Amino acid sequence: MRAQLPYSYSVDNAVEHDTAQPPPSAPWLRTNLYPARSSAGIVADARRARAARADIVIVSMHWARRRICRSPLRTVSSRP
Predict the structure, then answer these.
(1) For residue 62, which of 8, 55, 77, 78 is within the disulfide window of CB 3.0 to 4.6 Å?
(2) In the chain, where the domains are located
């Protein structure tokens, strides 16, 4: 079994501006926002997936300025 955990730093509300808060019409997006979950929350989500017998846990982070491509300054790796 695989688990994919997607997160984003902000939400593009399209009509407004990028924000770290979900639009009122989509409060469920909060569970996928880094400012709401924090690093500890993401690690806890990954541990819950492993406890649920996931063989592989993939964490996908969308974290960048829009339409700007640059090499990352650093890559963070975590081992259980």
Answers:
(1) 8
(2) 2-62
